[in-house]
Each structure stands twice: as C-alpha cells, then as structure tokens.
Amino acid sequence: MTIDQKLAILAESAKYDVSCASSGTTRSGGAGVGSCAVTGICHSWSADGRCVSLLKLLLGNRCIYDCAYCVNRRSNDIPRASLSVAEVVDLTLRFYRRNYIEGLFLSSAVERSPDDTMERLLEVARELRVRHAFQGYIHLKAIPGADPALVRRAGAYADRLSVNIELPSQESLQRLAPQKSKLGILGPMGVIHDGIAEYRAEAVVHRAAPRFAPAGQSTQMVVGASPENDLQILNLSAALYQRYDLKRVYYSAYVPVSTDSRLPALRTPPLEREHRLYQADWLMRLYGFAAQELLSPETPWLDPVLDPKCAWALRHPEAFPVEVATAPYERLLRVPGIGMRSAQRLCSTRRFAALRLEDLTRLGVVLRRAQFFLTVNGRCPAAGAMTPQRLRHCLISGDSARSPWWQPDLFAWRDAQAAPEACACP
Amino acid sequence: MSLSSYRYDGSFEGLLSAFAEARLEDAAGPAFSPASAAEGGLLWAAREVPLRPATAAALWRDLVSAGGAEAGRTLTSAWLAEESALEGALYEYCCLTLERRQCLDAWAAQPAIRAVLAAARRVGHEVHRFQGILRFAETQSGWYYAACEPDHNIIALLAPHFVGRLGDQRWAIHDRRRDLVVCWDGQELRPGRAPAAPPAGAAAGPALSEAEVATQSQWRRYHRHIAIDSRRNPRLQRRCLPRRYWPYLTEMQG
Questions:
Q1: Looking at this predicted complex, what is its ipTM?
Q2: Which of A126, A130, A212, B241 is the most exposed place for a label (fewest CB within 10 A)?
Q3: Is the distance from CB of A332 to CB of A322 less than 8 angstroms?
Q4: Is residue A292 part of a domain?
C-alpha cells in the first residue's frame, strides 16, 4: 500500500476527532524547525467548514474494540492501514516546512494493547522532538487503559494531551462501548491533571522546569448517540472543568456511521444542538455562568431557537437593565449582545470620556439584542415596555422594538393574555 | 492657524515630515495626500513637503516617548493598511498622543483613534491570516518560495514569524500585488523589490522540486479526506476562507 493510500484511509478514520486547537503554548528557538503561537493558527478550512490547523491522523485504524458509535469499530467493514513511525514523522515535517500545518494531532486505534499503542504514539513524539528538534505543536491522545508511566512520558513531549470521555454517562458507555470503562478513561485524565499541576507549581519556582503538556488537556464526547439531556451534559462538563482543570470539552454531533439498533436512527447529525452546547460551554468557561444557571431539572434542554445567554436574560428580568456607563465587567458580560471584546472596550473607553448610545455599535455591541437589557446614562435605547413573550419574539426574529410590526395597539389583544409585565427596562 | 493641505512623497517618513510641518504651523484640520494621488478636488493648492529624515525621526522619537512602543506599532500598522484618506486620522492620532502623553489605544470611542485602530487591526488580522494560509513550495534550487496577494502591505510584518519558525531553511515571500519580496537565506532578512520582468516561463513561479510535487498531491489528498461528508458546508468554508485566497492555496488546486 502506498503512503498516499494510507494517508487517505487514516485521515478518513481520524476526522471525527473534533479538536484542532493549536493554542495555549509558546515554543521557539532551538536548533531545529518550528515554533508555537499562543493564539493558535488556522491553516485551511475543509469542505465541511471546519478549520485545519493540525495534521490529524491515526497511526493505525485496526481496532480490537467494537464501540457502536465509532467508524473504526472492529465489526465495521472499512479499509484498514497503519503508518510507521518514520512515515508519520516524515509527513509531518514535509507538511510543516511548507506551512500547511501548525503541528501534529496523533491518535490511534488500539491494535494489540493500550500499552503497545501508547508506546508507538510516544515514539513518534520523541522522534520529532528529540531527533528533529521539532518545536511545532503536538497533540497526543492518551489511550484509556495505558500504563500511567507511559502517559507521564507523553506529557514531556506533547503540548496537549487528551482522553476522550466518549459518551456523557457510564450507562451509555456500558451500552455502546462495552469494552471501555469510566475508570479506564478517568484514570489517564487524572494522571495528566496531576502532571500538569506539578509542572505549573514547579515552573513558578524555576522557569526551566521540564514541561508537561503546557497547552493543557482536553476531551471530547459524542452528542446525540445516547439519551442524556443537555443539563446532564453541561453538569458533566462543569465537573470535568472543575475536577480535571480541562482546557476544553469538545462536543461532536453524532454522525450516523452505523445501523446498530442500539443507536438512534438519525438522518443528519444534530448540528444545531452541538452549536447550542458550545455556546453554553463558552458561557461557563469565559462568561462566569454556572451550569445550573443555564438549565434546571424542570427545563433540562437548551432552547433550540434562542441562544443560552438570551434565554437566561429572559428568565432573569431582575438582573436588568445594566448601566453601561458604570457596570463592572462581569455584569456587562451577562448582557445579550455584549461579548468579551466589547465588554473590555466599554470598560477601557469609558475612562476617557462619557459613553454615548452611538458609541455602542462602534465598540462592537450588538444593539439588536442588547438594547432591551441596558441603559446608557440612565436612558434605555429600546422603545416602550415589553412582555417576555414579545421580547422573546424580538430576540428570535431580530425585529427592532421600534418595528411597526410591534406597534402596541396592533397587538394589544395579545398583551391582554400575556403573562404579567416583566419589562427589561425601567 | 491656517487651513492647509500638504503633499508628501508617499513614504512613511515623508508623511511624518508633513505631520511635523503641519504641527509647526498649527494647521487646523490639515489634509495630506501622497504625490501619486491625482490633483484636484481641493479648494486650495496642496503644498509639497519634501522628505526630511531628521525631522521625521525627531517626531517619531517624540511619539514613542509619549505613547510608548505600542503607539508606534499601532501607527505603523495602520500606515501599512495603505488606505487612502487615513492620513487625517493618523495625524490626529499623533497629535492626541503627544498632547496626552500616553498610548490612547484604549479610547476606542474617539473617532480618529477608532479609525487608526481599525486599520491597524485589519492589518494585524491579515498578518495572522497569512501566517496560516501562506504556502511555501520547494524549488529545484532548494529555496522555498511563497507567493501571495495580500490586501495590505504586510510581508514585512509577516517575515519575522517565519524567521522564528522556518529559520533553518531558505525562503522568499513574494507580494505579487506590490512586487515586493522578503528573502531569508538562513542568516539575514533582506527586503527588496521583485524583478520587474520575471524570466520567461516563470509566470507561475520557479520550477518545483520532485519532492514538492509529491508533497503537494499528498496535501491535497489529505485535505479532501479530512472533510466529513454529512457535514458538508461550502458556505461556511468560503466565509472562513474567501475565494480570493484560493489561487495561492495548494489544497484548492486541481
């Protein structure tokens, strides 16, 4: 089999791994080739619109496991191949020297045993780092069930390590991936967490402390292949962020790759749900929201038509309006239509001069959404009082409150039946 | 105070010379235009300001001592955007910085500062984009050659990134829109102008090495196979990677 054929087969097998991040670490200098930019760099975009930053490959796709949701499961009839260590190293360097990629994301099916697979992954990373003094980005998969000592050694070469949690609950894992166990997955995750924590503590004392996965660890779960609701998923993510200090949890809409009766019959992957989960995930990681604020046992699903921040704002009229001239950064972040960038700009520019309404759009605030939730020097940009229903409609359709469609007299009859006034503005 | 219009030679130092002149004369709302711009449309004649290296250097020093290196970076980046009619905002940015003796980049609501910042940001974004989408091809002579047509004049800002990354190989980045080149021979970075008339047959770039041809085809193959068919989304792909960049992207050929 030629290397071209292997490349095609193993890219096909690797493409369901979501992460392509190349951020979170800087590397430079050295005798060899390469550097890492802390922001990460995208090099291309494939036909599905996903960015290509790393050369994403499996070392081999022959697998002893038979996980129902996985394209590489033993019982699936697909072409199989494996690359040698030298082939992967050569391919990585040739692509890297032409600026096609930011580095390598290497994973593998388990062909013989977890230890054997982990050792081969480790071998690739060591060849690149030691023999070729490669300073580009390396993301390695830690194989569940592998010897903790091997996972430890991987951390010395890799920028990022990840173990896929695969499915959101132990029951689903048992049903769909009977050969894998929660403990087998959380074990390496804990090893990586401890390694990173030790490295960080040591790096404070002396800067030349040996690195251990400096760009942190991430994980991934399949969404839509099992019956868990969004609240269960977000609670799990929150726990992973807290307990294992993960950099990212990735969600992968289940792509029907099998007709197994244990799996739901989907025509297309649940992309909308995946999108909402990512939005909620960002709110938890960067906007200071807790999972319990976004969902509750009574409403355990994210709103498919409204983003989770707007949905939260609608449920919490008491938190609004927010006065942009004085509100602290954390409160600005909770306003729909204000993101991190615009909140930072609002905070910095108001030190120089008083904010005016016309400044907001220029600073990146999306007034279409934000207008209902803020005041500028005591004045509210949106016209008139709002019922929650009306507000919801405005946020979904993007209609302005001033749009003639929503003239109060025209729809007065509807207001009469609506819930009590809970205006976002005074 | 006088209403004035200044004409400079089109270079950054020339512009700084004109700024110094305008500050000296305390001009109100001065206009600046490069010598290349067509005359006309002005109610009063533009005055030529010659390039005065010492004056320009003095103004630059003042500016950096007032606003720090950050203000200097913002100003040069905005200048490299090569946007017409930005000179007025650049001038106001300089004056405000000198007046307040601090970097004002955080004052995003001030119109001139916002305009300068926005231009600098467009340049920064394009530099970041090309850090990703620039493609080097190995030539038969062992050099790596990359051609591009950026919107802004960015290759001088782009080159240091590749010195840090591909410092052990010899490469050249060619801005085909402006006919500018930056070469790295493993030791030294040399900016220059591309030969006005490339040798015959070199229209598509220099001749490629054998390994290059194989690697390009492997990259194309990889790029095709990494996409998930059931998630196909060409609109998203084009939004992230606009078509105007495709002619120089290895993976989008053939």
A1: 0.90
A2: A130
A3: yes
A4: no
